Amino acid sequence: MQKLTTRFLVTSLLLIVLVSCKSYQIEGANKVASAITNFQNLYFSNPETDYVYKAHIEVYGNDLSGVFVVKKINDSIHRVVLTTDFGNKLLDFEVSETDFKINYVVENLNKKIVINTLKKDFVLLLKANHKVDEVFENGTSIIFKSNEGNRTNFFYENSDDNQYVKLVHTIHAKEKVTFSFLPKNTTFAESIIIQHHNIKLKIELTQINN
Amino acid sequence: MRIKIFTILFLALTKIVFSQEQKMSVTEIAEFKATIEKESKTINTIKTDFIQYKHLDFLSKDIETSGKMSFKTPNLLNWQYTKPYNYSIVFKSNKIFINDQGKKSIIDAGSSKIFEKINKMIVGSVSGNMFDDKEFAISYYKTKEFYIAKLSPKTKEISKYIQQIDLYFPINDVIVSLVKLNEPSGDFTKIVFKNKILNAKIDDSVFSN
């Protein structure tokens, strides 16, 4: 009986691993020869601009609303702040490619899992330069594939206007987070959706005309 | 040239002196508090427009949002942002009803001490009836234009979020015209009330989302 249970458990686990390891595939894309070695994310890159968004966050059935602010404060650091609609600060981070500093986080959000998830999201959202390993095309988009150990990022640019519209972040080739951008111009996305696939978290940002 | 410089300096100095805050005397404080408390008892409803400025030191410009506020005694409150987005929050019977651009949700404020305090603070700020010595250490100042009550929370629960609340009452008016919520970091939220109407009839349906 014990043996049977163990076998069942192992089979189930194997099945889960196999199913969850289904590789991320770019639909209808062909690899193309390219000399491009760097993908540049220009969103949030203008130090003169206050990037201000209305934020709507859905997390495990709960809704959170507020105002999300990003500003490039020097060559490598972005300041990221989330406040309630009334203006109370919920979190205040300084994010760079190599460093992450917490200036403030409200007690209810001060949990390791929350901080780590947001940290990873914000680094991906703000990181300016990514090395390119492979380039694909699928008719509507040019896709830049960038490997970082067991993590791979797919950056989608529109074929017609070269605007950056999507980032798919995978771990062990499984899609974990998708960032969708609606560009206003090359340095400003007027709407951003950050959709997590392994946890119930969706962050919607809509530009506020300030 | 020298005279011109002196004139400018003198004018600047005069302006600083006149706009400077002075501590109110014990008698002045007693009079001021009595007036506010007496007048706030005659208030049944308040309708007002507001502009909210969120100041974050690192931004080049404050974030400006605006809308309308309706208040009915004892504790019905609708705080409605209309620009640059629609968002309203209604405090009613210990519940908080939120309408975020059509997405509706309800929070049971009775189950949350923090929300109860937020509710009390908002209602208190708007009606000016905030002189609760148990919750706040209060100091009083005046300028040429305003009486200013500065409230420092006594409980850690609130002081973590807000270092000090400044209530500005225009001289010759009993209703708050400006509220400034100062955070421990130095950033602040400033709310300016405009087009205030007292004791107009407000239908209860205003307090549904």
Automatic annotation (TrEMBL), chain A:
PROSITE patterns: PROKAR_LIPOPROTEIN. This is Lipoprotein. It comes from Flavobacterium aciduliphilum. The lineage of its organism: Bacteria, Pseudomonadati, Bacteroidota, Flavobacteriia, Flavobacteriales.
From TrEMBL, chain B:
SUPFAM superfamilies: Prokaryotic lipoproteins and lipoprotein localization factors. Coiled coil: none annotated. This is Outer membrane lipoprotein carrier protein. CDD domains: LolA. InterPro entries: LolA/LolB/LppX, OM_lipoprot_carrier_LolA-like. Keywords: Lipoprotein, Signal.
